[in-house]
Amino acid sequence: MISLNFIFPKTDQRVLKKYKSSDKIYQIKESLLNTSLPLNIDKNTIDYIRFFSMGKELDDSKPLSSYPLPDPSHPMPIHVHLLYLQTARITPMCCDSCNIV
C-alpha cells in the first residue's frame, strides 16, 4: 500500500488515503471523487481532474507503481488541479491533452 497526500487548491484541507501500487491513476481519481473531496469542493461542478507530483503530471493509464516515491516512509504528495464546468467553456486550454471543448 502507498499513502497519498492530496493537496487541493484554495483550501487548507488535505486528504490522506492509501492505495495499492497496482491501482491506475484514473482509478485513484474516481475513488477520490466518490469518497473524499474537501467540503468546499462540489464534485458536480468538476469537469476534469489532473494530478501532479514532483513537478510531473501523472498519466491516467499508468499504475501508481510507475512513479518513484520520494520517501517511502512519508505519503506521496499529489497536487490536485481541478477544471470546473463553468470555467472550462470560457478558458483556453493549456495543452492538447485536456480535451475540453
Question: How would you characterize this protein structure?
Answer:
This protein has 101 residues and is an alpha+beta fold. The protein has one domain: Phosphatidylinositol 3-kinase Catalytic Subunit, Chain A, domain 1 (Ubiquitin-like (UB roll)), CATH 3.10.20.90. The chain has 2 helices and 5 strands; from the N terminus they run E-E-H-E-E-E-H. It has helices at residues 25-35, 85-88; strands at residues 2-7, 14-19, 46-53, 56-57, 76-84. Strands 2-1-5-3-4 form a 5-stranded mixed sheet. A hairpin with a 6-residue loop joins strand 1 and strand 2 (14-19). The longest helix has 11 residues, at 25-35. It is globular and about 35 Å long. The termini are far apart. The mean pLDDT is 81.
Strand and helix map with partners:
Blueprint lengths: L1 E6 L6 E6 L5 H11 L10 E8 L2 E2 L18 E9 H4 L13
Parallel strand pairs: 1-5
Antiparallel strand pairs: 1-2, 3-4, 3-5
CATH class: Alpha Beta
Put simply, the count of helices is: 2
Helix percentage: 10-25%
* Number of E strands: 5
User: What distance separates the N and C termini?
Assistant: 37 Å
Q: What is the CATH T-level topology?
A: Ubiquitin-like (UB roll)
Helix vs. strand class: alpha+beta
Tally of structural domains: 1
* CATH homologous superfamily (4th level) name: Phosphatidylinositol 3-kinase Catalytic Subunit, Chain A, domain 1
Overall mean pLDDT score? 81
Question: Which CATH architecture is right?
Answer: Roll
* SSE sequence, one letter per element: EEHEEEH
